[in-house]
Amino acid sequence: RIINGAMAIAQRGTSFSSPASGSYTLDRWFINWTGAAPATVAQVTGPTGFSSALQITGAASNTLTNLIQRIESYNCVDLVSQTISIRANIAVSTSQTVYWQLLYASATDNFTTTTNIATGTWSATTTATTFSAQISNLPSGAANGLQLAILANTSSTAAFGITGVQLEKGQQATSFDYRPYGTELMLCKRYFPTQTAGSGANAAYYNGQCFSSSTGYIPIPFDVQARVPPSGIQVIGAGSYTVNGTNGV
Predict the structure, then answer these.
(1) Per residue in 98-142, pLDDT tens?
(2) Fewer CB in a 10 Å sphere around the end CB: N or C, the chain?
(3) Taking the model in full, what pTM does it have?
(4) What are the tens digits of pLDDT across the range 76-87?
(5) Strand order through the sheet with 129-135
């Protein structure tokens, strides 16, 4: 049920310096931290069998970084009363105990408050290793949506790398389920769509209609239907445009 578990999709960018607590990095993954922000969160080359991994590099005063994905209710309803397996491929610069935690939302897709279902630990080393765990008899609250969190000690310059994250129904973790890249990208766009304009002096991307010198209507199509209506649009690196022969910015 994890999306972008192989850390291959990075619509926001491939490197984030001192990211704010609660901010998203690679698609579907956001972080919380204590003490101070980690130095970087980045998409890096993955271990054998994976093209990519997410790497968190620590910083002075950073004591813990929590990597989180939330799974919406539509993808959790059938897991109530079932046994699930989680797995992840992890390597760290210094051997440490890595913690995992599974929680459920207080209401349907509302993670303002959460309730713990299970926690556990994995003993990670410098060698990329696939770890797994099983959780039995998920409570009815799992139908509201699940939150998987993986916590690492990222103090000083410690590095934590992870990929191959999976959560599935069943009493045994199976091999990582690779989806086609295009399929994974479309799944990510349900939650965060980005579109890039064409390049060149005469590139055309969107067409619309101006009602006056200061107002207009420009429809922006989505590649897939978003989970919820967007709360806003961010334009990065905006250039110039031409309307009826008049330049704007």
Answers:
(1) 999 999 999 999 999 999 999 999 999 999 999 999 999 999 999
(2) C
(3) 0.88
(4) 999 999 999 999
(5) 15-17, 40-45, 52-57, 159-169, 84-92, 129-135
Are the CB atoms for 51 and 184 separated by under 8 Å?
A: no
Report the b/e string of 126-146 with b at 16+ CB within 10 A. Answer: eebebbebebeebeebbbbbb
Residues in the chain: 249
Distances from the Cα of 203 to the Cαs of 175, 198, 200, 239, in angstroms? 44, 5, 5, 11
> What 3 state SS string does 91-116 have?
EECCCEEEEEEEEEEEECCEEEEEEE
- The owner of tokens 């239907």 is 225
Block residue for tokens 């279902």: 117
Cα–Cα distance measured from residue 54 to residue 38, given in angstroms and rounded to the nearest whole number:
13
| Pair of tokens at residue 20 | 């704010």
